[in-house]
């Protein structure tokens, strides 16, 4: 049995808007079954997710390799849809890996990132879904420049409100422009956050995650849980809390020894939210053979 595993991803980490992304240990799993006359992808996921050739995974695979032999597929996913954990990016990356595997393309990580970023429109989620860990990227003249660094050891606690928030809606509240001085300050916060992570200083990085000026001041009006969870984090010694991607997921970076107390409080005070403990996935997309 051949399976493709793709990790969920959390973008931005506060001020790294459309540039920073980290892979976390929730997974989309795609099982490749027997060849067939037509593509079919079986799943039991909620929502109107196609099971035929119009599915995003299959569409992506066929964009890369139009003559692929159709197969029966089976998909399961721990990544909730429209919650800011890279569900669409995971599907795109799964499609790329499906074509890469079935057509024997032997694509490099960079080739996958270029294709995935073009399809998705920005690189922050697809980069870590492909290579794992923490990745920084930028698109310059349609080319993605990216670097992967090792994220320090920590527990990544996801708090997921029981409602969807489409990226289009979440982007609609963002300003068209920032004042020059504000943009300089926002960029400098992202810069020192990156330097802190490179040096393994999660204490400083966590503080800077909470001082974004690019998107959280606007999106937090749609996701009131951010400030509540951040307050708990301050009281329970978490490193930092930020809005994951476009939301609604709120992610808190916590040292292992403080995780239990933090999680208990969030569950008690926000009982309608799904609270999960994850870690940073260091591998990215991979092929798994056998049972």
Low-confidence stretches: none
CATH class of the largest domain: Alpha Beta
What is the helix/strand order? Answer: EEEHEHHHEEEHHHHHEEHEE
CATH topology of the largest domain: Ribosomal Protein S5, domain 2
Radius of gyration: 19 Å
SS summary, helix count: 10
- Find the count of extended strands (DSSP E, 2+ residues): 11
Largest sheet: 7 strands, mixed
State the separation between the terminal residues, measured CA to CA: 6 Å
Q: What sort of overall outline do the alpha carbons produce when their principal axes are compared? A: globular
The tally of structural domains comes to 2
Mean pLDDT, as a whole number? Answer: 94
- Known CATH architecture of the largest domain: 2-Layer Sandwich
Percent of residues in helices: 25-40%
Structural class: alpha+beta
Residues in β-strands, percent: 25-35%
Report on the structure:
This protein is of the alpha+beta class. Helix content is 36%, strand content 25%. It contains ten helices and eleven strands. It has helices at residues 56-64, 87-102, 109-120, 126-131, 167-172, 180-198, 202-209, 216-219, 225-235, 256-269; strands spanning 2-11, 20-35, 40-42, 71-77, 134-140, 143-149, 155-160, 240-243, 250-254, 274-278, 286-289. Strands 1, 2, 3, 4, 5, 6 and 11 form a seven-stranded mixed β-sheet that branches. Helix 1 crosses helix 2, helix 2 crosses helix 3 and helix 6 (180-198) packs antiparallel against helix 7 (202-209). It is globular, with a radius of gyration of 19 Å.
């Amino acid at each position: 049995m051949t399976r493709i595993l793709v990790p969920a991803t959390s973008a931005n980490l506060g001020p790294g808007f459309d540039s920073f992304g980290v892979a976390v240990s929730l997974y989309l799993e795609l099982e490749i079954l027997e060849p067939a006359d037509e593509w079919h992808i079986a799943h039991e996921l909620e929502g109107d997710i196609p099971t035929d050739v119009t599915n995003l995974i299959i569409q992506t695979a066929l964009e890369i390799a139009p003559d692929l032999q159709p197969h029966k597929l089976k998909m399961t996913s721990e990544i909730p849809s429209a919650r800011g954990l890279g569900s669409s990016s995971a599907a795109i990356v799964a499609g790329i890996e499906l074509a890469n595997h079935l057509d024997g393309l032997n694509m490099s990580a960079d080739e996958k990132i270029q294709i995935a970023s073009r399809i998705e429109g920005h690189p922050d989620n697809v980069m870590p879904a492909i290579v794992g860990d923490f990745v920084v990227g930028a698109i310059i003249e349609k080319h993605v420049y990216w670097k992967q660094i090792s994220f320090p050891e920590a527990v990544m606690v996801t708090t997921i409100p029981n409602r969807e928030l489409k990226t289009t809606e979440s982007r609609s509240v963002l300003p068209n422009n920032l004042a020059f001085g504000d943009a300089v300050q926002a960029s400098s916060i992202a810069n020192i956050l990156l330097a802190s992570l490179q040096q393994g200083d999660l204490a400083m990085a966590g503080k800077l995650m909470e001082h974004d000026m690019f998107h959280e001041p606007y999106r937090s009006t749609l996701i009131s849980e951010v400030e509540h969870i951040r307050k708990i984090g301050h009281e329970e010694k978490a490193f930092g809390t930020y809005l994951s991607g476009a939301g609604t997921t709120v992610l808190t970076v916590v040292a292992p020894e403080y995780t239990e107390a933090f999680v208990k409080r969030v569950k008690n005070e926000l009982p309608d939210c799904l609270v999960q403990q994850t870690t940073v996935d260091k591998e990215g997309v991979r092929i798994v053979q056998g049972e």
